Amino acid sequence: MKVRRVPQRTCVGCGKQAAKRSLVRIVRTPAGEVLVDATGRRNGRGAYVCGPACLEKALSGRLAHALERELGPDEAERLRRDVAALAAGAPREAGGHG
Predict the structure, then answer these.
(1) What distances in angstroms separate CA 44 from CA 1, 4, 30, 33, 53, one per listed residue?
(2) pTM of the model
(3) Which run of H or E residues covers position 87?
């Protein structure tokens, strides 16, 4: 039996590598909207953060660079709220794997 490799991603806030499922994905959709992707399956350009503390570090410029788009203050506040909710254990969207 073949052992499956666990996908790894790098947090744009702290730079640590971790299992993809343990990180929070932030995505810039093809329409240009920036959202927290609770399912990890939305189309678009993604970046990963460990949690709220790393999101704060990433908002200083690395997240905008990773998403290839500047973020407005309202978007940043919405991301803070959504990442904090996920970190607090809010249920993920239906249809996701985890």
Answers:
(1) 34, 25, 6, 9, 24
(2) 0.87
(3) helix 73-87
Burial of 66-80, coded b for 16+ CB within 10 Å and e otherwise, reads: bbeeebeeeebeebe
| Direct distance between the N- and C-terminal alpha carbons of the chain, in angstroms, rounded to an integer | 24
Residue with tokens 């985890």: 98
Q: Where are the domains of the chain?
A: 8-87
Residue 1 is encoded by which pair of tokens? 């039996």
Q: Which two tokens stand for residue 65?
A: 């660079």
CATH class of segment(s) 8-87: alpha beta
d(CA 34, CA 27): 6
The pLDDT tens digits for 11-58 are 999 999 999 999 999 999 999 999 999 999 999 999 999 999 999 999
Backbone angles phi, psi at 49, to 5 degrees: -135, 155
